[in-house]
Automatic annotation (TrEMBL):
Assigned protein family: Belongs to the binding-protein-dependent transport system permease family.
Family matches, as PROSITE patterns: ABC_TM1
InterPro entries for this protein: MetI-like, MetI-like_sf
Topological relation to the membrane, as annotated: Multi-pass membrane protein
Taxonomic classification: Bacteria, Pseudomonadati, Pseudomonadota, Alphaproteobacteria, Hyphomicrobiales
GO BP: transmembrane transport
Location within or outside the cell: Cell membrane
TM stretches of this protein: 31-52, 89-107, 119-141, 147-166, 187-217, 237-258
Organism: Ancylobacter dichloromethanicus
Keywords: Cell membrane, Membrane, Transmembrane, Transmembrane helix, Transport
Protein name (database record): Taurine ABC transporter permease
Entry superkingdom: Bacteria
CDD domains, per the entry: TM_PBP2
A GO cellular component annotation in the UniProt record: plasma membrane
Keyword match Transmembrane: yes
């Protein structure tokens, strides 16, 4: 083969351009979220430092973080966080242990659904905190009434989500399992629950922040140790730094708890299309 047979494209061929690197959408979302938080924190700090905001009503963020660090070293924060987390998770687990089986039974039994459906429909939109005086009268002013109040608040979204998830199921997998001779309890564990699991987990993700909010509110109303109790005590003594330190503690605790449940959802639904996306 001579050089005359070499085409012009072969002689002057330029190297192929390097493929462009695309930033993942999740990375972009994370950067945007971090940027918004940093901007709000900077506005809070400099606004309070330079007089744009009243430093008593809104103390500088650095002062709040110093108080938080001091309380952390003394162990006060750990005790308050531990008590609040214990009450929130205890009530949440009680609600889940009762609400998930009840939602499943309601979807499979007309008699149970006939009895509980009006109660769930009436109780769901009600302000649950209105029952706190009743729980205090029935139980005590310590952890029992607080935990029951949290469980009562978390119960309704869990039952509603479980009932909706186990009712609106595709019939074809159920019919296929029955055609292969599967028994009803096998269909329940191997077909119903896996198919309804995304909806059940959604109900749990709705109920957990509700439980956190209810815990802090009950601690504020009833007093004692805990994040809510510490915040209301600081407010009574006009300690605005202590109040905002409690708010930061609630934000951090809520973020960690919610993200932990999201991670658990991703692990439990590793087979589901939503996790693959």
């Amino acid at each position: 083969m001579t050089m005359s047979h070499v085409g012009p494209a072969t002689k002057g061929a330029a190297p192929a351009p390097a493929p462009r690197r695309h930033i993942a959408p999740r990375t972009v979302d994370t950067l945007v979220q971090v940027s918004v938080i940093v901007a709000l924190a900077a506005f809070w700090e400099f606004g309070a430092r330079f007089g744009a905001l009243n430093p008593f009503l809104l103390p500088p963020l650095s002062t709040v973080l110093v108080r938080l660090w001091t309380d952390l070293l003394s162990g006060v924060v750990l005790v308050d966080l531990g008590l609040t987390l214990y009450r929130a998770l205890s009530g949440f687990l009680i609600a889940a242990l009762i609400g998930i089986p009840l939602g499943i039974v309601m979807s499979r039994s007309k008699a149970v659904r006939w009895f509980f459906d009006p109660l769930i429909s009436v109780g769901f939109p009600m302000p649950k905190i209105a029952f706190l005086p009743i729980f205090i009268l029935w139980f005590d002013i310590y952890d029992t009434s607080k935990i029951i109040m949290v469980a009562f608040s978390c119960f309704f979204p869990i039952v509603a989500a479980t009932y909706a998830g186990t009712t609106a199921l595709d019939k074809w997998p159920i019919w296929s399992a029955r055609s292969f001779g599967a028994r009803e309890h096998e269909i329940l564990w191997e077909v119903h629950l896996p198919m309804a699991l995304p909806q059940i987990l959604t109900g749990l993700q709705v109920a957990l922040p509700v439980g956190m909010i209810t815990t802090v509110v009950t601690e504020m109303l009833m007093g004692g140790r805990g994040i809510g109790g510490a915040m209301i005590t600081a407010g009574r003594f006009a300690d605005s730094v202590g109040v905002f330190a409690g708010i930061v503690e609630v934000i951090i605790l809520g973020f960690v708890v919610v993200k932990s449940l999201e991670y658990l959802r991703a692990r439990l639904l590793i087979w589901h299309p939503e996790t693959r996306r």
